Amino acid sequence: MTLDETKGNQDNTSEDPKGTSEKEPETLTEGDRTTKAVSDALSAAGRDAKAMEARESAVKVALGKAEKLQADIKKAEGERTEREYRADLERAGDDPLARSKVELSQQIRGLRGELGDTKSELGKSQEELTDTRKVVAESTKERNAREIASKYEVDSKTLLLTDGSVEAMEALAKTISGKEIKTLKPDESKTGGGGTMPDSAKGKMRAGWDELHK
Question: Does the reported pTM lie above 0.90?
Fold first, then answer.
């Protein structure tokens, strides 16, 4: 065998037949797709939560600076008003009518300041009420998520990815778990498939008597 023939044989054996190294595409089941979608959603929710926390922190810092600036402005205005009041009294001298006008103007300024403070406090109270309602709604949503998650044996955090309604969370829980749980109505829990079971002892005895003498 010549040197060229030996080289050719080595080249042929080193070649990989076309298609032998290609992997067949993986086929995902419905459960796998659901799990992947939930995992992706949780990852995205985690990133969004961190970004929201950063924004909330920045907003709190900005609000703190704004409140301090507002307090400084109010203090400066109060000092200016006091100086103007003293100057007006000096100009009025001993004239009772002029001094009364100065006193009245000062009282009006004070009332306007109190009105502004009242409006500001009212605005803060409304904001606090809105925040409280949000906290209550969020707490209710989390409680519902825990209850539904316990019933269907799924992760409650996953259910919170919905709009928060009981219907949406229960639908997602059914999809993930593949379970269909029937909730008994109050009337169904009192019956054995026939009529309504009487609540009183006398009613139960009467029902038993009627059953025996059919």
Answer: no
